[in-house]
Design brief:
The chain is of the alpha/beta class and 161 residues long. Helix content is 30%, strand content 30%. The protein contains 4 helices and 7 strands; from the N terminus they run E-E-E-E-H-E-H-H-E-H-E.
Length: 161
């Protein structure tokens, strides 16, 4: 089961949520997509993990999205957030079109149970339409109003990790 939540930006994300960015590679790659895991400290000193997925040919999602799903499954991250605007930029599409395309190729190949946040920025309506499409197409994918931090921000913890 995939539960989807919304955030306006990374600051609304729980610290345990790992960032996933799709980036257009400027260098030739030996595979349709390549991964790099990174660890950073945010402004409050909280450790943040992430995955940068680089692609040379974003116009061929059927080649690289299943590989991304496999990598995500192997990492075992059960809470992560997709940087929607990196995806849209890499695919040279509007956020809703990029998400529609991403979902069509990703969710079929992603067998894990996870809480996935989407950063909606100022595009909440467009992102929500993509989510509605996913819910109709994939029975295990659903929006979780309890994780709609864009609409109802969670209380921020003072603890440091």
């Amino acid at each position: 089961m995939i539960s989807l939540g919304f955030i306006r930006n990374f600051e609304q994300c729980p610290p345990e949520a790992r960032q996933v960015r799709v980036l257009r590679s400027k260098q030739p790659l030996s595979a349709p997509g390549e991964a790099a895991v990174h660890i950073r400290h945010d402004d409050q000193g909280v450790i943040r993990w992430g995955l940068d997925w680089s692609v040379c040919d974003p116009a061929s999602p059927e080649q690289w999205m299943p590989l991304l799903a496999t990598r995500m499954t192997k990492l075992g991250w059960n809470t992560w957030w997709l940087d929607v605007f990196c995806l849209a930029r890499a695919m040279d599409m509007s956020p809703d079109r990029a998400l529609d395309t991403w979902g069509e190729h990703f969710w079929n190949a992603y067998p894990a149970t996870a809480l996935v946040f989407l950063d909606v920025g100022q595009q909440r309506g467009a992102v929500y339409q993509a989510v509605r499409h996913w819910e109709k197409r994939f029975s295990l994918v659903h929006f979780s109003p309890g994780h709609d931090y864009d609409d109802h921000p969670p209380a921020r913890s003072k603890s440091r990790k």
